[in-house]
């Protein structure tokens, strides 16, 4: 059963969403609506909803603050923000909070339902994954799985729990305080489910059967292996086992799956485990730059500060402003090549730069094109970065939007040229009462269907509406500046029936042609 919590201080929003969203059809079995952050906090003390939909600006506590509290109490809850405001800082906070989506008011119900459906599918997928993981543990007979996790968790913090270690050693004769240790982190492909990951684990075990080790799985889908050995074992077993393992890894795969492996330096005793573990973790971040198919050992102890040339970032922006596609792509490739070499930099720093470039590009798209043409880039750009695993993903997404931007620019340029032809022909043929959509399209060298689509897209009105507006505007001009009869003005404006023309004029100007002329004369 999937449960949801809706938080918004506006009753019209709450009631509207409760009434018009098809919750049951979207997989939500129970929905609770509250009007304040305070009530939400009290509710969350005893309840753990799967989905939380919250206004980002609430009285006395904004949605960002509330979301941080939610993350502390309900780490597994999925959050959707709704807001009447579009703010880059909100997007950045949303990324940190791993919010599912950011929907701007006025709320598009279709967009909201699409987002809710996406999240419910994700929740069901996560539940399925948990069940698969439980099944895997049963299949493996891992009666030590919990004690392994506890031991490794303690050791990477530098804690030697005598009671736990004694129990472990009674059963497995495993590790001792004076042993040396090596930490290995293994990252399987993100798309691999628990059963497939088990294949990778079993293949890995084949190389280390003669060694003493524990392993467990972190919440981020990374496996931690902790090897223990004496000096003699290192020379006779450990070194050769790792050589065989790395040799097998030359193709960058284990059991047919792409993997990334980070190996720490040797710790001379258990007190050094936290240090070598953190070095392996830092090294694991190189996956963002290198991707799969890599087996790395520690070369650097601390992430470096990225010395980024802001001038080139500004050059990128300027190339967008002046619409120089070749320069935009060249600068983006230059930035990519530079950042990909900075493998000691924290991935979040690189992601933030790509996010900045992408937001600027999408803002230009919003300014230049209708939302109908491009969707809602402010909503979907930041959420993408949450799922990107490598710098290649970030760069590909930026390039995708660059090409989309310039393709639309080129399309708009040609559309505007065609619209200009249509406008010019209409203005030159207002008096032709037989003028048809086909005549106008033929004169512009377009099909009627294509002409009507691009004209409406670029002007916001139909060709027929524009023709009528031009004729009525010309009628108003003749009434104002000539003494022509109403019948003659109607004819010159492209109308064969004076009475029909008068009705159209009255509907547009809220007065008849004769009354309009009288007001001018008075």
UniProtKB/TrEMBL annotation:
This is Stage 0 sporulation protein A homolog. Keywords: Cytoplasm, DNA-binding, Phosphoprotein, Transcription, Transcription regulation, Two-component regulatory system. GO terms for biological process: phosphorelay signal transduction system. InterPro entries: CheY-like_superfamily, Homeodomain-like_sf, HptR, HTH_AraC, Sig_transdc_resp-reg_receiver. Its main location: cytoplasm. It comes from the Bacteria. GO terms for molecular function: DNA-binding transcription factor activity; sequence-specific DNA binding.
């Amino acid at each position: 059963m999937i449960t949801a919590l809706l938080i918004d201080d506006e009753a019209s929003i709450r009631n509207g969403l409760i009434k018009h969203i098809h919750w049951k059809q979207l997989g939500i079995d129970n929905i609770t609506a509250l009007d304040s952050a305070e009530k939400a906090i009290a509710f969350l003390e005893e309840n753990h909803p799967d989905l939380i939909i919250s206004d980002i600006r609430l009285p006395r506590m904004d949605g960002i603050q509330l979301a941080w509290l939610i993350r502390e109490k309900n780490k597994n809850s999925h959050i959707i923000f709704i807001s009447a405001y579009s703010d880059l800082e909100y997007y950045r906070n949303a990324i940190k909070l791993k919010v599912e989506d950011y929907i701007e008011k006025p709320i598009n119900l279709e967009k909201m339902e699409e987002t809710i459906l996406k999240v419910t599918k994700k929740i069901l997928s996560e539940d399925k994954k948990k069940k698969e993981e439980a099944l895997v543990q049963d299949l493996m007979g891992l009666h030590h799985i919990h004690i392994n996790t506890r031991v490794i968790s303690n050791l990477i913090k530098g804690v030697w729990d005598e009671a736990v270690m004694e129990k472990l050693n009674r059963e497995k004769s495993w590790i001792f305080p004076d042993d040396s240790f090596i930490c290995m982190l293994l990252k399987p492909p993100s798309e691999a489910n628990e059963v497939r990951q088990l294949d990778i684990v079993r293949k890995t075990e084949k190389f280390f059967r003669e060694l003493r080790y524990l392993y467990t799985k972190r919440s981020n889908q990374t496996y931690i292996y902790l090897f223990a050995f004496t000096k003699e074992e290192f020379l006779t077993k450990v070194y050769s086992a790792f050589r065989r393992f790395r040799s097998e890894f030359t193709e960058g795969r284990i059991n047919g799956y792409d993997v990334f492996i980070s190996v720490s330096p040797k710790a001379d005793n258990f007190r050094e485990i936290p240090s070598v573990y953190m070095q392996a973790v830092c090294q694991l971040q190189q996956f963002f730059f290198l991707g799969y198919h890599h087996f790395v050992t520690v070369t650097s102890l601390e992430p470096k500060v990225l010395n980024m040339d802001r001038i080139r970032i500004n050059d990128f922006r300027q190339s967008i402003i002046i619409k120089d596609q070749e320069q935009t792509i060249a600068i983006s490739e230059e930035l990519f090549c530079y950042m990909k070499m900075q493998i000691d930099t924290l991935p979040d720093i690189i992601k933030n730069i790509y996010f900045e470039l992408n937001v600027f590009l999408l803002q230009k798209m919003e300014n230049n094109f209708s939302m109908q043409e491009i969707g809602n880039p402010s909503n979907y750009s930041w959420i993408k970065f949450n799922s990107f695993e490598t710098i290649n993903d970030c760069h590909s997404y930026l390039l995708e939007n660059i090409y989309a931007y310039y393709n639309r620019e080129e399309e708009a340029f040609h559309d505007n040229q065609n619209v200009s032809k249509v406008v010019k022909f209409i203005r030159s043929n207002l008096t032709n009462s037989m003028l048809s959509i086909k005549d106008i399209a033929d004169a512009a060298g377009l099909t009627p269907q294509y002409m009507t689509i691009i004209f409406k897209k670029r002007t916001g009105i139909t060709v027929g509406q524009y023709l009528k507006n031009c004729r009525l505007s010309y009628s108003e001009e003749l009434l104002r500046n000539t003494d022509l009869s109403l019948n003659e003005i109607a004819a010159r404006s492209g109308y064969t029936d004076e009475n029909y023309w008068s009705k159209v004029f009255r509907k547009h100007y809220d007065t008849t042609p004769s009354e309009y002329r009288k007001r001018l004369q008075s």
